[in-house]
Amino acid sequence: MDNFNALMDGFAAILTPGNLLIALIGVTIGTAVGVLPGLGTAMAVALLLPITYGMEPTQAFIMFGGIFYGGMYGGSTTSILLNTPGQSSSVVTVLEGFKMAKAGRGGQALATAAIGSFVAGLIATTALVLVTPITVQFAITLGAPDYFAIMVLALVATSSVLGASRIRGFASLLVGLIIGTIGIDAVTGQQRLTYGVAELASGVDVIIVAVGVFAVGEALWTAARLKVAGDDVIPVGRVWMGRSDWKRSWGPWLRGSALGFPFGAVPAGGAELPTFLSYITERRLSKHKKEFGHGAIEGVAGPEAANNASAAGTMVPMLALGLPVNATAAVMLAAFQNYGIQPGPLLFEKESALVWTMIASLFVGNVMLLVLNLPLIPLWVKLLRIPKPYLYAGILFFASMGAYAVNAQPFDLFLLLTLGLVGLAMRRFGLPVLPLIVGLILGPMAERQARMALQLSGGDLGGLVGGPVSWTVYGIIALIALWPLVTLTRRRLARKREAEPVSV
């Protein structure tokens, strides 16, 4: 009942003209960013971090939440009309959505994507309200060794799952951990990796890293691969759904929501896997199997619902444990830290008004997105006609202004360009960006928890292993680390059996 009352207070806070306007701005920016291929919500939040310094924390996170949800909505537009996913989580939507658009059913595809996102957002945000307080109660019982183990699991899982290979994932993580150690050690007072540069003594600001790697790196990468010829956009037509479309879509919406939320809450689970699983599920359950591959509406409804539900799922570990499970959550976690707020078990006690207002804003933003997406889709499509040189020149300008505004030091602009080149190199060689950001944020936090555990144990390494939770987590880490070896051994045994002569 206390949580329900807190949520009602959150609705009372969000339903004011000023906060509603901020929520509307957030979902509008998020939808626009989702529509434009290659930008991403993480880049948008990173660019807006310096701009929101003068805002109240509650208003800033209302905007960030709107951008996060809006990006999930907008990513389907280019998938359906341009055969190009606006977000990586919208890749599966391309399979059936673009075929529907080519067959003249783009309006139905866009409608089921928008309504499915609304249904999934409503269900998943309700689950967020119910699950997060339970997670907080569990987190309160954890000690320093348990937290250290969970953070190590997040680092290992994020690095091993993402990217073309585990080596690339761990290389990206190593870069993030190195950047996170730059500055003065809080315990010994010694400078680490500053090389005598006074500006590095206070460490590298997370905002500059996020803006440099995401925004500048993406702009340079796009410029290096820019095509002169533009892509043809399929006309939208009227956005509507017939009775048959409604009948075929409601089941995938519910199943996609059920798949997306739990995967979103798992470190490195993301939205890519549940959207793919949703597509496979609908293909098996559908009575119209022959339409798959030629424009089946179930192949759009299910994955888009899973995509949006996973967005709410990522909020659970971020708010309850302080663990980011995707790039946008990592940048939002950096925003919490810049406001002097530490996400985790005590967040609901110390910043109750902020948290519940933010959660209430997700409900409100979800309604706004439905209203924005259905009638205004033709307007969003016009964004696709903006010349990319102009678009990314504007991004570089705002990235530079935002980075300079953090500390008002020219050195930060040099650092921004250097990190942009690092982001460009990572994209060139297939290194995922998320492990770098997660390593940068969680690395110092894991170090602090490890030191605390070792101090409590008098320097004994056994102090890093606490109760059953840490033992279980270390077991999962061992399984993740050894799984490639198990897979390789099974393949070798299978080849050996095939090579053995068959006795007659």
Automatic annotation (TrEMBL):
<keyword id="KW-0812">Transmembrane</keyword>
<keyword id="KW-0472">Membrane</keyword>
<feature type="transmembrane region" description="Helical">
    <location>
        <begin position="318"/>
        <end position="341"/>
    </location>
</feature>
<protein>
    <submittedName>
        <fullName>Tripartite tricarboxylate transporter permease</fullName>
    </submittedName>
</protein>
<feature type="transmembrane region" description="Helical">
    <location>
        <begin position="353"/>
        <end position="377"/>
    </location>
</feature>
<feature type="transmembrane region" description="Helical">
    <location>
        <begin position="109"/>
        <end position="135"/>
    </location>
</feature>
<feature type="domain" description="DUF112">
    <location>
        <begin position="20"/>
        <end position="437"/>
    </location>
</feature>
<feature type="transmembrane region" description="Helical">
    <location>
        <begin position="389"/>
        <end position="406"/>
    </location>
</feature>
<feature type="transmembrane region" description="Helical">
    <location>
        <begin position="170"/>
        <end position="188"/>
    </location>
</feature>
<keyword id="KW-1133">Transmembrane helix</keyword>
<dbReference type="Pfam" id="PF01970">
    <property type="entry name" value="TctA"/>
</dbReference>
<feature type="transmembrane region" description="Helical">
    <location>
        <begin position="20"/>
        <end position="49"/>
    </location>
</feature>
<feature type="transmembrane region" description="Helical">
    <location>
        <begin position="461"/>
        <end position="486"/>
    </location>
</feature>
<feature type="transmembrane region" description="Helical">
    <location>
        <begin position="200"/>
        <end position="221"/>
    </location>
</feature>
<dbReference type="InterPro" id="IPR002823">
    <property type="entry name" value="DUF112_TM"/>
</dbReference>
<feature type="transmembrane region" description="Helical">
    <location>
        <begin position="61"/>
        <end position="82"/>
    </location>
</feature>
